[in-house]
Each structure stands twice: as C-alpha cells, then as structure tokens.
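A further point concerns the way the authors explain their paired sequence and structure data. Since the whole study asks how a given chain folds, the encoding of that fold should be made plain. A single example would do more here than another paragraph of explanation. An entry of this sort, consisting of the sequence and the corresponding backbone structure tokens, reads as follows:

_____
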Amino acid sequence: MKTKRLYYTDSILLAFKSRIVEVREEDNKFITILEKTAFYPTSGGQQHDIGLLHSIEVVDVIDGDQILHITNEPVGKVGEIVSGMINYKRRQKNKQQHSAQHILSQAFYRLYKLETKSVHLGENYGNIEFETKEITDTQVQKAEILANQVIQENREVKPLLVQSEHLGKYNLRRPTDRTGEIRLIEIDDFECSACGGTHVHKTSEIQLIKIISTEKIRGRVAINFFSGQQAIDDYRIRFAVSNSIAQNLTCSVEDIESHFDKIVESNKLLKREVTLLQKELMPQYIENLLNQVEVVQGINVIFTLENRFDKNNINQFALTLAEKCNGIAVLLYKDKIILSCAENTQLHAGEFAKKLSVQTSLKGGGNKNIAQLGTTVEKDFELYKTKIAEIIAIGKNEN
C-alpha cells in the first residue's frame, strides 16, 4: 500500500492524524509507516520535513512508495492513530527555496536558454547547476531581476495532478518520461515543471531571491542563492557590515570599493618600504644577537624570539644569522620554528627538523640550509631548546 502524500495538494497543512500500518527497528532507529502523511521526504533536491509524531521527534523522512518516518524512539503500534506536527520554520524555508529554484531555472531558460541540470536545496542555500560552461555577471544580474519581478507580481503557484497522456497541454520547461499520474507545479504564465516538492501558493510569499555566487561543478556552472528569510537575514548582516565600514572610512557605501582599493595599494607600498628598511637594518639586528651565542656540544647556537621581520625577509635573516654565528640559528617566528645551519657545521637543517618533529608535535621540513616546523607556542620554547640540544648531543655521540 502506497502512503498517501497530503503535501501533494496542501503544502500549508502542518497538523494531521493518521493510522500506523507498519513499524520496525533498524540500526538502532525506529521506522514508522503511516496510511497518509504530511511529512515531505528528501527527494528532488529538497530536504525532508522535521517535526513530531506523538511527541516523538522525526529526524529523517525517506522517500519510496511507502514513506519512512525515522525516529530515535518508538512512535506507536500498528493500527494506532497518531498525530503529526510539521516544523513550520523548516517547511516554510523549503517552500520558499524550492519555489525560488523554479523561478530562477525558468528565468535563466527564458533569457539564455540555459537548461537546469541538477538542483540541491541545502540547509544554508540553494544550488542550481546549468548545462553551460559559462555564466556572466550580467546574465546573473538580469536573471535575478526577472526572478524578483515575478515575486512582486504575486503570481499564483498551483500544484496540478495530470495524466501523462495529457502533458501536451502544458508548456513544460523540462520534458518528463514518467507515465501515469504526474504532479506539476505551475507558476501562472511563467513556469511549469513536473515536481513533487512543497511550494508557496503565491510568489510574493518567497519575499526575495538573491544570487550569492557562481561555481564550477563537473565542467558546468552552478549558481548559489538565498531566498525568503535567508535572503532577508543575509541582507541585514551585509547592510550592517557595509554601513559600519562606510562610517569608519567616512564615505558612502557606494564608495567603499574605491576606498578599499586605495587602502590596498597604499598597504602594498608600505610593505615594500618595510621590507627594504628591514633589509637595511638586518646587519645591526644580527650584530646585536651574536652576543647571545650558546655553545652546545661544541656547536654555536643562537635561540631567539623573532617577530620583527616579515615573511619576505625572515628566511634570509635566519640564514645570515647562522652563517654569522658560524653555527645554528633557531628562531621562534610567530607560530613556527625556523632553523638554519651554517655550511661549515656539516649539519642538514631538513634532517635536523625531522628529528625534532619526532620528539615534539611539530610538523615540517626543509633543505640542507633552512627548515621550518609548526605549529608552535611561545611557552614551549624552552622545551624546544632542550630537545634541540639533545639532538645535537646525540649527533655528536654518533659521530
């Protein structure tokens, strides 16, 4: 016996009663099958409903001739009448998102003849994959404008149950090879597709559609979009952030981008100047550190915390310091240890780093002259110094 799908004809229905026809337990989960249900199962790219059956939380709903309601506790016995309650927030999000997908798919088809290849309506955003290798920003903007125009026009969205032999009467966006009774979703004078999902009754209920990004999937282009409350929440966050930035830059929101570009360019120039100044000051810094040389098993070693140099100069600083002290330079730089060995020490920095990695939780490597390991913490620097001294001693003994 097939489960009667109440949401097929009434997507507003949230509360219902039904008789249990089968129960079973699998993998520590309980499965309940009802004569009829308002719970939508995961299918067609849309997420399943959540809610309650007899006060027991429904954690999953699986599609098939018989719809399976999955719970962590038993709901009831065969023959028992149970009450069901659909979670409104989840149902509303799904309805808005799925209806938005239909409108967007039709918008891209009408404007650019782009066919929808696949759909994924996720928890955080919707995704539509198109049969194309490229979608331009202009195409995205125009499709989004058309989609929101359809929302503003408050067009009727109707579920229709049609026999397959009568499908020729309808202007389907995508043909279907299914036979028998087929459920269509028709958006008045705009879109018509075979679909089993839940949808709004009027396009204005979607509120807003916002395309947030494009991405490449399997050689095709997909769009990601927000709809309904998700789009409104996202707008509120973006408005607050952009408004705050504009106030800090003392400019209008429209001028943020140009101000940001100027800041980025200025920052690049400052970084170049800092790099040059660091190179000029490097000999003096090194000279000041040479009085910190420690002799470990006859090898000169300098241990130092070093955050004055940027990433463009730090390796050169370590290499030069090792050569100047005629030994090993060990720098704790941000969250890394940088280790350099002078040529005449006959030590290999990369091999030294491997040995240190074995004795600590640090990961990394390098070449003969310089190596890096991370992630480090400053409070453990004394431990690292001890381990390095032990490695030097072991090396001496082996020789």
Notes: The mean pLDDT is 93. Residues 256-289 form the longest helix (34 residues).
